[in-house]
Amino acid sequence: MRPIFSKWRNLVPLLLAAALAGCVAQPGKPAQPAAGGGKGTDFSEWPCLSYTLACGRTPNRKPVKQALAGPLGGDPARGKVFANERSKGNCVACHLIQGAEQPGSKGPDLSAYGTWDRSDAETYALVYDMRWRNPDTVMPTFGVNQILNDQELRDVVAFLQSSK
Amino acid sequence: MAGNHSFSLHALALISLFVMAAPGPAAGAGAVYREAYPRAAIDPSRGIGGAGDADFGATLQYWQDEKSLEQHKQWIGDPEHEWKLNWKFLDFDRTDDMHPGYLALEAGEKLFKLWAKREPAFRTCLGEGKTDLKGLAATYPKYDPKLKRIMTVEGRVEHCAQTALWETFKQGSPANNQISLYFKSLSAREPIRVDTGSAEIMQSYRRGEKLFHAKVGQFNFSCASCHTSSGLLGQRFRGQVPTTPFGDAAHFPTYRLALGDIESLQQRFMRCNLQARTKALPPGDPAYTDLEVFYTVLSNDYPVSVPSAR
Asked: What gap in Å lies between CA A148 and CA A154, rounded to an integer?
């Protein structure tokens, strides 16, 4: 059945050069973690899979239904940026939201969330930690695990409420 | 290539952290609050068969053999359907007889032959006493009663380099990946046969299954959150679509275009951990070894599919 398509073909000369330049003989070099790089990529303060490291015994943070203190006071424009930004909220990884490029397909369409008649408080609590509503959710625990701080959460909620 | 001291036999460099695959305390033991993603039922005796179940996307029919792949090749490049092929169209020479996996394999063969010529004990160590290595890698991971631990292909290469060559080919290093790839290629197209009749293997499998479901990291994700159908399997997620865990172990070590190098299965675990903001463990870590046993049992009966490129 070959070749179905050839995405490698034009790369081969390049790679061959790289191989000749010494990839045959680099025994013993330790593996580099490929993703991340730079600061904040250790993550050992969060639970991990290790049997020996401390993070292997770090508990998950328990589900909380966080109350919204005071008025929302969020900035929808900033919220829109966080919601679409990979390093921040990245709501777009799972939801269709306003301004989305390459939206994910797992979560419900939130592009008209502002018409749903949800209170700021409930929305804040859901984004803070979805687990109080659904313990088996795949939505990240944005507030509890400090992926977004309080103001960023308020901004994101303001963005959702402004999505009409 | 400058400063290459790697072919010297540095005698006492053996005091490397040589992690034992001894059963550790399972994550979540004791009173610590640990969450797990709901378990989908997996029957380890079915091997690759479980990939036909809806809990894992029911994709087996599309990639289980050459004929199935051929019948669905129109999905290649189609974002709606491509994930259902489990990327198996990128194994061997199905897309190209010149892909970089072949270059990596060539490099591995050269390296292996060089060392085996210099020190024949390297070959017999890999062969567990025999010189013929054909078909052996398809039985990995396996319990080694002499060493009293679970050995992966990469673990065996590291061990044999240490004992026969007095060299440190750490798991995850280019040398280890290349030789492991060559070793596995000597079982290419042989069905994977992890011994599920072995008590030690099954204990490791159970630990690995538990790790697969453990919620970890800043995102509070388990492997299952992304690689099962109740999670993100088959869903568009950050421009990617997570696929079934079945059959994955068959094509590693694989050439990763994005990395410009080959990577082992456990290096892929590292990347998935990091992606979900979780502490990554070093290749050869006992927890990753258990995960690899779990993953490879989920590839049982599928042919060893190297070289491959992703």
From this structure: 10
B69, burial (CB in 10 Å: exposed 0-12, middle 13-18, buried 19+): buried
Q: Which of residues 53-92 of A touch B (CB under 8 A)?
A: 53, 55-62, 86, 90
pTM: 0.89
Interface contacts (A, B; CB < 8 Å): 237
User: Interface pTM (ipTM) of the complex?
Assistant: 0.88
Same domain, residue pair B161 and B118: yes
Grouped pLDDT means (10 residues each) for chain A, 164 residues? 46 44 39 42 94 97 97 97 88 95 94 97 98 97 96 98 97
Closest CA to A84 of A155, A161, A164: A155
Kindly state whether residues B266 and B139 are assigned to the same domain.
no
Put simply, the answer to whether B219 touches A141 (Cβ < 8 Å) is yes
Q: Higher-confidence residue: B188 or A26?
A: B188
Shared-domain flag, residues A47 and A80: no
On whether both B93 and B107 belong to a single domain, the answer is no
**Best residue of A41, A44, A49 to probe chain B, by most B CBs closer than 10 Å:** A49
Task: Kindly state whether residues A80 and A46 are assigned to the same domain.
Answer: no
Where a domain ends, among B125, B154, B185? B185
Nearest-Å Rg of the Cα atoms of chain A is 22
